[in-house]
Amino acid sequence: MAEGGYTTPRAADTLASAAGIDQLLGRGGAAFPTSVKIDAVRRAAASTALAPAVVANGAEGEPLSIKDRYLLRFRPHLVLEGVVAVADALGAPEAHVYVADPIARAAVDTAVAELAVARPAVRVHVFQAQETYVAGEETAVVRALTKGIARPTDKPPRPYQVGVGGAPTLVLNVETLACIARSLQSPSAEAGGTFLTTVSGGGRPPVLYEVPVDAPLHEVTRAHFGDDDTGRDLLIGGFFGGLLPAWSDLRLSHAGVRLRRGSLGCGSLHFLERGACPIRIAADVAGYYAEHNARQCGTCISSTSSVAATLAQLGNPTPGVNYASMLPRWATQLIGRGACAVPDAVATMIRSLLHFYPQSLERHLAQGCEACAEAAADPTPRWEHLTVSLPGCAAKQESPSDPLAVSA
Ligand code: SF4
Residues with beta carbon inside 6 Å of ligand 1? Predict the structure, then answer.
């Protein structure tokens, strides 16, 4: 620790090797290689007169994830150390912390004031993000910081080309920045060798775990449920990665989950109750997207509503409607059809139903489903049972000094 608890500044070309981040994948959900992102900003900045900027993205609009809020509330200096390290490496005089949760905002404000004393060379601003699903998409982040509108834009340009105030901008998720900081603090530690996963559902209170990358799923189920039971289904990567059978040998890495046709996304794991209807859950997620899309891309607006209505109807299918052809069509046609990945997420959800639950779909089409019909008739917002809030997370409230109570 060189200055006020913060590590020594490093140039961009030495940061990757010093922090061992050349293998680190971003933790916001897209899993883009961090060192490639840093290098893209460095090269873009070299060809413009504008100084580059850095943004710590802590918007975390994903309803099933609390990891970023946890880091900003309880480990703000760890995130800021990552911010300062990449700002130093890029020669960025300004950085922004983009945060939605008001409690996290207060913790960050305090930490930034302390940082200003320890490291005055980098000016860090805190920006209040909107609490919407799409506010954390990286072009929405840049648009919010520049124009006050937290909605995604078409790409290109990407933020590394034209970012905050037109400057090349590095937008990194706050967990990614915390990984960089931890690696700088402990050079022997592998950058990103573990990840934070919000585990919820299955009739148990949600808990935030720190898990080794590529750990088998049964290590998490044993820690969370006390057994290796594979009789549950899994909503993976928040609302983004689809539904999967909870195979005990599923490897918890982006590559491991991709091999099984899912996406690890932001790393969260939501277990369905035993016997829960996967089509009802898919309808709940589609219902969320129908209400929480940013209402600016025609295909997204119409298709999320149509998918949500169609899946909700499967509890009591309308005779003569060719549901069997609609779902495969959406599963392919929605890919890449929006300014952000919401249509892709809906397509992934449908593909997972078609691939893993074809018998359940056939049964719904043939005879309907009581659980789906009940959910469709319930006036409560369908997705409400699929949200996790930090104050409701027992492990964090009971032990705020060390909320990562269990490491699988
Ligand atoms: S794809 Fe959907 S959620 Fe994304 S920007 Fe377009 S309308 Fe908004």
Answer: 134, 151-152, 293-297, 300-301, 338-340, 342-343
How confident is the model over 259-310, as pLDDT tens digits? 999 999 999 999 999 999 999 999 999 999 999 999 999 999 999 999 999 9
Question: CA 344 to CA 363: how far, in whole Å?
Answer: 26
Contact 236, 263 (CB under 8 A): yes
Fold of 278-377: de novo design (two linked rop proteins) (1.20.1440)
The sign one gets for the Cα dihedral 370, 372, 377, 379 is positive
Q: What is the pLDDT of residue 402?
A: 35
- Closest C-alpha residue for ligand 1 atom 3: 293
Residues of the chain with CATH 3.40.50.11540: 12-185
Q: Quote the CA–CA distance of 207 and 407 in Å, as a whole number.
A: 11
**pTM for the whole structure:** 0.92
- Domain ranges in the chain with CATH number 1.20.1440.230: 278-377
Cite the DSSP H helix spans in 47-98: 67-74, 76-90
Contact 109, 195 (CB under 8 A): no
CA distance linking residue 285 with residue 242, whole number of Å: 10
Q: The tokens of 108 are what?
A: 């960050």
In this structure, the residue with its CA closest to atom 4 of ligand 1 is 340
As a whole number of angstroms, the distance between CA 256 and CA 83 comes to 29
Mean confidence (pLDDT) of the chain = 91
DSSP assigned state of 212: E
- List the residue whose alpha carbon is closest to atom 6 of ligand 1: 297
C-alpha–C-alpha distance, residues 235 and 349, integer Å: 9
Q: Which residue has the higher pLDDT, 397 or 147?
A: 147
- Are 211 and 195 in contact, with CB atoms under 8 Å apart? yes
* pLDDT at residue 358, rounded to an integer: 97
Compute the chain's Rg from CA coordinates: 21
Domain 12-185 classified CATH 3.40.50.970? no
